[in-house]
Design goal:
Blueprint lengths: L8 E3 L13 H5 L2 E7 L11 E7 L5 H9 L17 E6 L3 E5 L10 H17 L3 E9 L6 H12 L4 E6 L6 H15 L8 E4 L8 H11 L2
Parallel strand pairs: 1-8, 3-5, 3-6, 6-7, 7-8
Antiparallel strand pairs: 2-4, 4-5
Bound molecules: guanosine-5'-triphosphate and magnesium ion.
The site of magnesium ion has 5 residues, from helix 2.
Length: 222
């Protein structure tokens, strides 16, 4: 953690300049293939890829965001019930770029043993994946950062991995109520030196934030 507070660019609508939004649509909506689902770091796909992953609490909308981003209905499986994604799932676009869907954490119904297994699987992935460029940390717009998110941010700090926060389900909160969540989140986020200084708000239900998100990812995928 750092004692110096950093500032964040915050994108909620399309206030980003048009030229910055020139993301490569084809990159996301072209061919996509499911490579594999793994439970151990030993099975991480071998080779040189550019990789980003989506992490966050169970049910926050990670798999939905991958579908949204790639214009697919169900390339990544989603569910109303938390705990849908059980493995680390690798999707490949444009022959050498990986979108990785992680299983969620913070779900109360799982046993201690399962929680420990999740922790080991994901922590190993963060430490062993030499292709991983950035973690997108998804936070529910209604709830803000929870202690389990802070725990994850500490792991990322330890692994020296840059992460970028994305608010999800913005359709489920009134803009006025979101202000408080945003303020509290930024206060906590600013203590992490490895927090990427850009935050994006999304809703897959109301089609909010897709271009902003594609623009951010395109810059990693150059
Ligand atoms: N209202 C609303 N619902 C959403 C949004 N994004 C996802 N959902 C819903 O939230 C639920 C969980 O979505 P998933 O994408 O499966 O969540 P996940 O983070 O992958 O969950 P796990 O795999 O269990 O960790 C589903 O019922 C989605 O339809 C959104 O932007 N707005
Ligand atoms: Mg999922």
């Amino acid at each position: 953690m750092t004692s110096e507070k950093q500032e964040f660019n915050f994108y909620i609508g399309n206030e980003r300049k048009i030229e910055d939004l020139k993301s490569n649509h084809k990159l996301f909506t072209g061919q996509i293939s499911f490579i594999k689902g793994i439970k151990s770091f030993q099975d991480i796909p071998e080779g040189d890829f550019i990789e980003i992953c989506f992490s966050g609490r169970s049910n926050v909308g990670k798999s939905s965001l991958i579908n949204f981003l790639t214009g697919r209905k169900s390339i990544a499986r989603t569910s109303k019930t938390p705990g849908r994604t059980r493995e680390i799932n690798f999707f490949r676009i444009d022959y050498n770029k990986h979108l990785v869907d992680l299983p969620g954490y913070g779900y109360a119904q799982v046993s201690k043993k399962e929680r420990q297994a999740w922790f080991k699987m994901v922590k190993d992935y963060f430490f062993y994946s030499h292709n991983l460029r950035r973690v997108f940390l998804l936070i529910d717009s209604r709830h803000g950062l929870k202690p389990s998110d802070i725990d994850l941010m500490k792991i990322l700090e330890e692994a020296a991995i840059s992460f970028q926060l994305i608010f999800t389900k913005y359709d489920k909160i009134k803009p006025i109520d979101f202000e408080e969540i945003k303020k509290n989140t930024f206060n906590k986020l600013s203590l992490f030196a490895n927090a990427f200084p850009e935050v994006i708000v999304t809703s897959t239900k109301k089609n909010i934030g897709i271009e902003n998100l594609r623009a951010s990812i395109s810059k990693i995928f150059v």
